[in-house]
Design goal:
- 2 copies of one chain form a homodimer.
- Chain A contains 11 helices and 14 strands.
- By secondary structure, chain A is an alpha/beta fold.
- In chain A, the strands form 3 sheets. A 6-stranded parallel β-sheet of chain A has the order 3-2-1-4-5-6, with helices on both faces.
- The interface between A and B is large, with 44 and 44 residues.
Chain lengths: 334, 334
Amino acid sequence: MRVALLAHELFPERAKTAVGVLRYADHEVVAVLDRDLAGDRVNDHVPDVQDAPIVADAADAPDCDALVVGVAPIGGGFEESWRPDVRAAIRQGWDVVAGLHYLLAEDEEFARLADEQGVDLRDVRAPPDDLSVATGEGVDARVVLTVGTDCSSGKMTGCFELRDAARERGLDAAVVPTGQTGIMIAGWGIAIDRVISDFAAGATERLVHRASDNDVLFVEGQGALAHPAYSGVTAAILHGSHPDSLVLCHVAGRETVGGYDTYTLPDPERYLGLYESVAAPVAPATVDAGLLNTQGLDGEEAREAVDGYGDRLGVPATDPVRYDADAVLDAVLE
Amino acid sequence: MRVALLAHELFPERAKTAVGVLRYADHEVVAVLDRDLAGDRVNDHVPDVQDAPIVADAADAPDCDALVVGVAPIGGGFEESWRPDVRAAIRQGWDVVAGLHYLLAEDEEFARLADEQGVDLRDVRAPPDDLSVATGEGVDARVVLTVGTDCSSGKMTGCFELRDAARERGLDAAVVPTGQTGIMIAGWGIAIDRVISDFAAGATERLVHRASDNDVLFVEGQGALAHPAYSGVTAAILHGSHPDSLVLCHVAGRETVGGYDTYTLPDPERYLGLYESVAAPVAPATVDAGLLNTQGLDGEEAREAVDGYGDRLGVPATDPVRYDADAVLDAVLE
């Protein structure tokens, strides 16, 4: 699929979805829309992903199959400044893919235009309407779940990096996406944070069963087990995925919960114990590896931070974007 | 409010909501509807609650303000055999209150009839539509949360018993209801299991703030922290309520998860550690007391079971339906 990525005024630091698609999706990206950076190229800002021109609006982008909304604002709202681009995309015959709480298919203008043009509006965050409670049954595939000390700590990125490393070894490996960005990259999944809480573990279980013909599944965790707002989503995925192995993700230097600065993050080694002890009665998984996001550290600092993180946890660790994931992959496949 | 309770073929053992209303609500119960027991009286089956006649259908019941659906079937469906009673109630000018996933207000016949008669259909499980994520802010009132080793372990009952004991001491005390039965008894609340998982902690927080003008709040926990299906709801309430004190509820002799018999329940003392360690980073609450459901044990067995449970946890324990809650109340108010 050929796509254009909408990321106005936020590319690349605050456009997690756009950067995720550039880095991990099979899609060919024909352009990034960011009116602040028009004229630049993607590789001017993110060197190690596929390159593409950055343009000011949809009319300036090459023809393609779909416009992907590549930003995920807190609250999941729709920015009215995006409307002309979504309108233009539909008129150009492109599908529009979004992961917002605001559903494009329920927007009167977009729904009417899409109907006239015969294009699809795909709201990947809208859950299926036939979900149910978990049965408690796991799968035969090896299930590796990324868990975190906080939101935005590298759980999704870790899954895709570990999947690619496993595929290089000839394994059938898949990411099980549980959030909007992962769903856009992989093309399937359920946004567990949008599911009725009674059904959140059941929805996770359904995803894992659906992918169970692979040798190994990398399940995208969400939130953190002691997060003041999102621990429910975390616990549902922890039990609903029936993991064999856990990978603890952390951001180097982060000491308080993102957006909740009065809450101090527990130490990673304490978090390791929390995850293992809560998982145990349902699925006796151990934290077999650590992933550390070292963005912002220089080379030597990053290496030291990763080594220190592995030592604290007592397991192999890496920054999978910066370094290879071989030792971590060995540890989670054992 | 004067109410009739619908509990066909399930009173009293499998009519948790009806028995809860009889025992704890301020409502005057004019009749219980159970076609299998018509002609008996409530006290023939449940001796220690308000008495009322048991009748075969709504037409046989004395006039009142509302018909309350007093059963909560797994899955939350509507039994078509209840339709004649709901229809008759509306025609008699009664409101109808239900806590089902199936919403009476969306039933075409009931909605039309209710409109004609000017009566309300109150679906207490339908969440408010303006929920949002938790802010992470607690309240000044003392917050006591009942947590459990399983579903149906006495968390709701414990809250109402402790509330009544606190009121006897002259304290302003309120139950914060998080499930359909508690909501029907107290007349307010949110069914957290029905809330979008991203907003579950936020919805709990809203309830606690709403009741914060009391001296002490008894928050109704849900599920269990290591439950294969419902741990997400549990974790959201654990953090969203910002508890000062936890009370661990357990059913004497239960060894496997109800409805999930392949899962062994962790020992209560291990569960105590799970709750405290996961709560700590957000709200450093301790398990200060235990509640044991000894239904089915004879007097001496029950006393021994309660003493043994308290010894294992190292805190005061009681069966609040069978014995007084004084020592437990002392412990959670300290």
